[in-house]
Amino acid sequence: MSITLKLDPHAVHSCSICGWTYIGYGHNAQPVNNGRCCNDCNAAIVVPLRIRNITKNLAPSQAKA
Q1: The model's pTM
Q2: In this structure, what DSSP letter does residue 48 have?
């Protein structure tokens, strides 16, 4: 079973992190929450958290590479 997410590139949505509105597809807000977020929250919150989670799980010898 697959789930298809159809988003309108011209629709107005509310960011699941900050609550501000954005137009378009937005971004997957995981691991912050299961919603979609605006460009600003994606760049300032979601991506840094993803990077932190990845580097936290690396062995010490891999993290310095």
Answers
A1: 0.76
A2: H
CB contact set of 51 (below 8 Å; sequence gap of 6+): none
- What is the three-state SS of 21-46? EEECCCEECCCCCCCEECHHHHHHHH
Ranges of the chain whose pLDDT falls below 50: none
Tell me how far CA of residue 10 lies from CA of 7, 25, 33, 44, in angstroms: 9, 8, 23, 23
Domain ranges of the chain: 12-59
**Tokens representing 45?**
């919150």
| CA 22 distance to own-chain centroid | 14
